[in-house]
Amino acid sequence: MNSDGSGLTRLTDNSVYDGYPNFSPDGNSIVFSAWDENEYPEIFTMNVDGTTRTQITKEEGAYWQNAPKYNPAGDKIYFHASYNANERIVMMDPDGNNWVNITEPNEFGYQELHLFFNADGSKIVYETTENKGYNNGGDLVIANADGSNPTVITSSADQEWAFQACFHPSEDKLFISLVPDGGNQGIYSIDIDGSNLLQLSDCNLTGVEEQLTLDSELKLFPNPANNQVEINWEGLKGHNCTIRIYTTNGQEVYNRVIKTDCDTYNLNTLDLAKGMYFLELDNSQQRQTQKLIINR
Length: 296
Hints:
mainly beta; Neuraminidase; Immunoglobulin-like; 2 domains; 8-stranded mixed β-sheet; 4-stranded antiparallel β-sheet; 1 helix; about 45% strand
């Protein structure tokens, strides 16, 4: 689809699953995982219009080939190979030949996954669970693209998960997902040597759609809105309540503290461009988020 969500076009037609699409660097091919006639997922490539679907892996038995990704040069595909609750990272040629283990096969329950490259493809970062044991936590590893010189840069506590790291363009920092023991998943930055961990986001306990089912339900009317939207929420009455509005890429475009003696507040939206936003209300005791569409 287009970047504004229009022009949705179906590229695959599978009875079970097609997923994890990733573009080749030249933009001409897509590599992806599929699970159809095969008993377990395998890796396929196709043209960007969905034609010339080609299966490039075929392993007998209960093996999973999943989450493929081209390296920045486009001459290799990396993917997750798993069997019996273990997972490792493998590199192969774009035609599926010449498998090379980037991380070694694991014992039961250990995984290396969530692979990301730096800009020139010389380094990779990935998550490993080998340090914490089965289902007990995850750490981040930086290594050369061939898997050599792996360096663990985090030291997670039990039930703490550091994963889904990506390099900052300067390559002196990573941005990561982190789930502290007993806490909520958030986005953090960390130096590539593992120092200076800094929390950047504070996640809600529930998703946007889930919050609509809570007892104190936030309602917006009309939505889509034009020049004004009525906010209706029990948490407004008698509280200092902060209204924040974010774009879909996380940029805050509105922040105001209000206090009313009723459950409603009329918000002027003239300064908001056409598009989708997230409106958040926070009265220090609870927080609600709702999608807001501006359609003038």
